[in-house]
Design goal:
Radius of gyration: 23 Å
Largest sheet: none
Number of strands: 0
CATH superfamily: MFS general substrate transporter like domains
Organism: Tuber borchii
Helix content: over 70%
Subcellular location: Membrane
Keywords: Membrane, Transmembrane, Transmembrane helix, Transport
Shape: globular
Protein name: Major facilitator superfamily domain-containing protein
Number of domains: 1
GO cellular component, one term: membrane
CATH topology: Growth Hormone, Chain: A
Order of helices and strands: HHHHHHHHHHHHHHHHHHHH
Distance between the termini: 35 Å
């Protein structure tokens, strides 16, 4: 099997640097069936362990709502003033600040060491949260949790996007993300059963939520050290790489056929500043912030909203989990369709419209059944848009250094979305939280506006590329065009 680099044949209208046709690929020594076999090996080794880690990350981050209605509010006096919102909000401050430095450390230290270490650390913090007696200590622990979790999601997205070509990446991001949200959604049922441990060893049920979930995180962190793989250009430096030299060369070759950046370029702080000067990265980040608001809002406040409808604590936890099932089906179906069609913006727009429709039902209907159905509609759109917006940026940038910076910035703005969600849903608006729901709807209208602007810009630049009237190549490559 040859590992020679295959020459470019130009671009198609989706923005992908088009590889040679199948016949010429065969002549060049490219075996498509063998490539697919290698990619399946990468899928099985890379995605499950990252999904498992991110699942516990979401659970450890979003278990506050379950603990709140299980007695934590009263025990820690979080029902005084805005204490509960403060506890939620402080998580996102270090989460935003340390994402970019973490991505820079990731390349130097190695994926397995770095991701497993920070997972172990936030697992220990989560266990400690089960023994807190003062709400101010809870604030401090949430700050630590934000610090340790800050590097995980941008690191995962950066790593996944480095292994796949652009028209494969949304399905992988969706599979990784949607599996974790499904587990995270059903964590409310686990939370309900953990509260049944109330009184064991003299500890309240809400304390067992943090303790048991923290122990699970620590256990998975040890597995991550063993199974997480590194970037394609660093894989062979490991003692026992799971791919052979020739298989790694094939991975690099197909990435080079797609976007010509399989080898990491140097990254310094001056290069970071240079990439941050690209206004498009800030638009992608703002779109991800808008996409992050609905999932955070539902994770933190849905059980409380359902309890306000008159459901018991246990039923609120169970009903909070059910909407995640169809959301995963819808999200993965749309991701497959998006990769198949090599389009991004139309699917993001569809997700935003679903969020608007669902939240409108939940906010303004007087019937509890309609309000609850609105949660299903909203979550389907919200869970589609998180991986879709990540893929939108991944498809429209090149170079490892820019991917590292862009991913950290984008997910950092997701933290701002979490801050937004934790502040617009105010305790005084309970149990309906209508102001928060309307504010969340506003973020989706902003996404639609940004999509229109970016689509017009991308089409203009692609047309100029086709007509050879550009001042300089798009993304510093003569064959690159944008994915609409």
């Amino acid at each position: 099997m040859t590992s020679e680099k295959v020459s470019y044949n130009g671009t198609d209208n989706s923005g992908v640097i088009t590889p040679p046709q199948t016949s010429s690929m065969a002549e060049s020594g490219v075996d498509l069936a063998y490539e697919k076999k290698i990619i399946r090996k990468v899928d099985l080794r890379l995605l499950p362990i990252l999904a498992a880690l991110y699942s516990v990350s979401l659970i450890d981050r979003a278990n506050m709502a379950g603990a709140a209605i299980a007695g934590m509010m009263a025990d820690l006096k979080l029902n005084i003033g805005s204490r509960y919102s403060i506890v939620l909000l402080v998580f996102f401050i270090p989460y935003f600040i340390f994402e970019l430095p973490s991505n820079l450390v990731l390349r130097r230290v190695g994926s397995a060491v770095w991701l497993s270490s920070i997972a172990f650390s936030w697992g220990v913090v989560t266990i400690g949260m089960g023994f807190i007696e003062d709400w101010r200590i809870m604030v401090f622990c949430r700050v630590l949790l934000g610090f340790f979790e800050s590097g995980f999601l941008p690191g995962c997205v950066y790593l996944i996007c480095s292994w796949y070509v652009r028209y494969e990446v949304q399905q992988r991001l969706a599979g990784f993300y949607l599996f974790t949200t499904l587990v995270g959604g059903f964590s409310s049922i686990m939370v309900y059963w953990l509260t049944k441990m109330n009184g064991i060893q003299g500890l309240a049920g809400w304390r067992w939520i943090f303790i048991i979930e923290g122990v699970i995180t620590v256990a998975i962190a040890f597995l991550a050290y063993i199974f997480v793989i590194d970037f394609p250009d660093k894989l062979l430096q490991r003692r026992k790489p799971f791919l052979t030299d020739s298989e790694v060369d094939i991975i690099k070759s197909r990435i080079n056929r797609d976007r010509d950046d399989s080898q990491a370029d140097p990254i310094t702080w001056s290069i970071v500043v240079h990439h941050l000067a690209d206004w498009k990265l800030w638009v992608y980040a703002l779109m991800f912030m808008n996409g992050a608001v609905p999932p955070y809002a539902l994770a933190y406040f849905l059980p409380i909203i359902l309890k306000g409808m008159g459901y018991s604590t246990g039923m609120s936890q169970i009903l909070s989990a059910l909407p995640y099932i169809p959301a995963v089906v819808v999200g993965f179906t749309l991701a497959w369709w998006a990769d198949k069609s090599r389009l991004r913006a139309p699917f993001i727009a569809l997700g935003a419209l679903l969020v608007i429709a669902g939240l409108s039902m939940t906010a303004f209907s007087s019937h509890h059944s309609v309000r609850y159905f609105g949660v299903f509609v909203c979550l389907a759109g919200a869970q589609n848009n998180v991986p879709a917006v990540l893929a939108y940026q991944a498809n429209n940038i090149r170079m490892n250094s820019k991917r590292s910076v862009g991913t950290a910035l984008q997910i950092g703005f997701g933290a701002i979305g979490g801050v937004f969600a934790s502040t617009v849903f105010r305790e005084k608006d309970a149990p309906g939280y209508r102001n928060g729901l309307w504010a969340t709807i506003g973020t989706q209208f902003l996404t639609l506006l940004l999509l229109v602007c970016m689509t017009i810009y991308f089409k203009k630049k692609n047309r100029q590329h086709k007509e050879s009237t550009l001042d300089k190549p798009l993304e510093n490559h003569p064959e690159f065009t944008y994915t609409i």
